[in-house]
């Protein structure tokens, strides 16, 4: 229900609600035109409800009020409400559509304030929604507009001017009159929707490994033939006392240099530290302390929120996080980080959507709390 009693459309200026249905000569606005002369004759007594009239284009029969298929879903207008989970729960299934009473479609039933306003003969209108989320958004938005006493018409006119459009006739072109304002609201809502993260083969593998890790299992990697050949060549070279470098095989020179660098003696301590970071259990589970989303902005915002918790140690925390991120990026892969994050209490599906850097930040915070 949309109670427009306190909205700007009820005011006495040139955009008042009375003008919406008067003098337009347009059928699209006639549905809310009130026949004041006839209503005044009834007084406060009860009058019978008029029978519904159907458009001449309707094709009616015993099953349908209109059997014409409409829309992409080929929707048809049944005489009785069809049985579905929702219609059964609402006690509407099997009942004639013409017999559905207004209060049955209200969230609060007969407690709906708009029915009270309707009983006083005040302007009311129904806004149809197709989900609970739509209904709640429309209700709260319109309630906020009324409470703030916002001038909807002025906002619509200003939106049209900002868009460089002419102001159409409010009566004959009501949808066009509101178009620019509606577009502005839609853009604001769209800006709040997080962008979907594309799922890659690596992410799918990471999710599978996360489930295994949650079950206490690990997927043992298998060496490919090139790696096995390199190991054999290295053993032969060492046994012969040769000073020649091992056969590189199909790997590039850059990959070989990177492999040798990881095996350098000075790098052993860093590798050990990286392994230690992805082991153990934190004092505070990441179920209770984690970012609200997987995006870089959400993770950074979460880290900033820890400043109040670590007043005297926040600078130390940030240095620790930077060190851990650099260390794990060099000496760990995403699968290892994913398994560690899940072991620390992070939801597997949530963790699988995070990149290596954000996983490392979460692990760094968890280890800092455990220190």
UniProtKB/TrEMBL annotation:
Residues 253-269 have a biased composition (Basic and acidic residues). Residues 1-33 have a biased composition (Polar residues). It comes from the Eukaryota. Residues 1-54, 221-269 are annotated as: Disordered. This is Uncharacterized protein. It comes from Symbiodinium natans. The lineage of its organism: Eukaryota, Sar, Alveolata, Dinophyceae, Suessiales.
